[in-house]
Every structure is written in C-alpha cells, then in structure tokens.
Design brief:
Length: 311
C-alpha cells in the first residue's frame, strides 16, 4: 500500500540506558504537531528491529524517512536504502533527529540533540544533498562475499574496542565524551596494538598499529577534515603514543586537531586495502561487525543517498 509522498515515515529509536527515553519522543511529537507535519510513526523495540522497520517504510512507499536516533540507526537505514534500485532510491530522502549514543553524522551537519525544534524546522524546509557512503567489502566465516556501507566511519583496533566498552558501560545520561575518555585511557594504558598490513594508494604500512579510522565524515574526532561529498575517504593511522604524549593526544582529539599529533598519520584516498589486522575488532558507524576472514577493502560510493541538510 502506497502512502502520500509528502507524509514522513518517522522511526523513533529510544536511546539505550537513557533516563525516561520516551521524553525525547514526546518532545519530537509535540514539535511535529505544532508545525502541522503529516507523518506516521513507529518505534524500534531494539537495535535489531531498525532494519526491519526501515524496510517496511520503504516497501510502503514513504519518500521521506526521518530517523530519531544515532549513527548506528542511520547505518541500518542507508544499508536498507542501498538495496533498492537506483531509480527508486533516488526518490527517497533521509533525515535525522539525533538521539543516539553516537551522533557524529548529525553533528557534522550541526544538528544538535538539545535543539529538536531547530532540527525539525530544517527538515521541513527539505534541502537535500546527495552524500557519499563508505563501503567495506569482505569475506565472512562462511566464505561468502559481503559488504556493509557506512555514513560516518569504519574503525579498526582501539576505537572499535572503545565503542564496545562504551556501549557496555553507558550510563543513564549517555554522556558521550565522559565515557569515551576513561574507556580510551584504560585501553591505551593496556598498550593495545595490532599487527597490520595496509595498502593506501602507493604506501604500504606493515607494523604494529593502535587504531585505524576510515572516515566518510568526522570519525569520532579521528578524521576531522573528512566530508561526505568529495568522493574520497580520510584515513588516520595511529601508532601507539608515548605515555607523555597521551594528555596532548586527548586535548587534540576533543579540540578537533588530532591530525597535528605526531603519532597520527593522515591520508586521503578512494580505497584502502587491509591485508592483515590480527585480532583487531572492527566497528562500523558505532556498532561492532563480525570480523572479516582474510584481507578486505574499504572504498567509497559517491553521491548515492539523498540526505536532508540544514537550509
């Protein structure tokens, strides 16, 4: 059954561990009604239900899908959209009202969790820009060829491990930086390093690496210069800093200047080939994925998703 093309499909993803998670939806609902927005609403039961609900909205013909959630919910949405034929996907616009543990893609466009009214006003104006997606292509444990798209970043090593620890330890207030910092400190002092072999254009990196971040956008501070509309990925390869460099590193990370750190080696490329990443966890848009078996490639798909941006 097709719906009115001007009606929004709104998917509310409650923030995990939040105090009164429904309060966010009550605020969004009030604002939508005050502005006379025509919409249908569904709520995800858990992170595993997001893909099913987005697919339902697409099959029912919604042309504007708004995710009230974070990076991982947006990731499910774009991976569903990429299953559509191009001519159908080009008719669907994706928007976000940030409400996740990680909201870096929304932050890139200056959408803030605390300013629902302003975000909805921008969504109503409906300025659309085609954005890029990163894509990891790999072989799984069943020897099947697989791929996964990402809007913000793919992380290998320490950052993926921090995401795992942060999701396990997130408190009722969802303080992003306050939980990221102690988790990062704990793991850095454990001196987590991973033997990797990477090919980035003509460069070959074959050594122990602390973390690699491949950013289509901000990459949780590790790829602060990345933009999701230039057909390129920013890559930050981070070697293990000396203990005396840690304070400087955290200051630079949270001030958006991490590329100035001597242990960070930045690249800009269309493709990175990971030939080896021993025992390293891999995260895609704030969620861990099953580790690939053997080498894998990370590339970029240019201008494939219609995203609603500030006017």
């Amino acid at each position: 059954m097709s719906v009115d093309k001007n009606k929004w499909g709104v998917l509310f993803c409650p923030k995990s561990g939040a105090f009164r998670p429904q309060a966010k939806w009550e605020k969004v609902e009030k604002c939508l009604k005050e502005r006379g927005v025509s919409y249908d609403f569904v709520q995800s039961e858990n992170s595993n239900s997001v893909e099913r609900l987005v697919r339902m909205m697409l099959s029912n013909g919604y042309k504007t899908i708004v995710i009230v959630g974070g990076d991982s919910a947006l990731n499910e949405a774009v991976n569903c959209m990429m299953q559509l034929p191009k001519e159908e996907r080009d008719e669907v616009d994706l928007g976000v009202i940030p409400n996740g543990l990680m909201n870096d893609f929304a932050h890139f466009w200056d959408f803030k969790e605390s300013d629902v009214e302003n975000t909805i006003d921008h969504l109503i104006k409906h300025r659309v820009r085609k954005v890029d997606l990163g894509c990891i292509r790999y072989t799984n444990a069943k020897n099947e060829k697989c791929h996964r798209y990402f809007l913000n970043c793919l992380s290998i090593g320490l950052v993926a491990s921090v995401i795992q620890k942060r999701r396990r330890a997130s408190g009722p207030f969802g303080w992003r930086k306050l939980t990221f910092i102690p988790s990062s400190l704990l793991m850095i002092f454990q001196r987590l390093e991973y033997k990797m072999r990477l090919r980035i254009d003509t460069d070959v990196i074959d050594r122990k690496v602390m973390t690699v971040c491949v950013g289509n956008a901000q990459g949780y501070g590790f790829t602060p210069s990345a933009v999701p509309y230039n057909g390129l990925l920013d890559v930050s390869v981070v070697y293990h800093p000396e203990v005396v460099q840690l304070i400087e590193g955290f200051y630079l990370l949270f001030s958006g200047k991490i590329l100035n750190h001597r242990s960070v080696h930045p690249y800009r490329t269309k493709e990175i080939i990971v030939e080896k990443a021993e025992r390293a966890l891999i995260g895609v848009d704030g969620r861990l994925m099953n580790s690939p078996v053997g080498p894998f490639k990370v590339g970029v798909e240019q201008e494939v998703i219609n995203f609603i941006i500030p006017s």
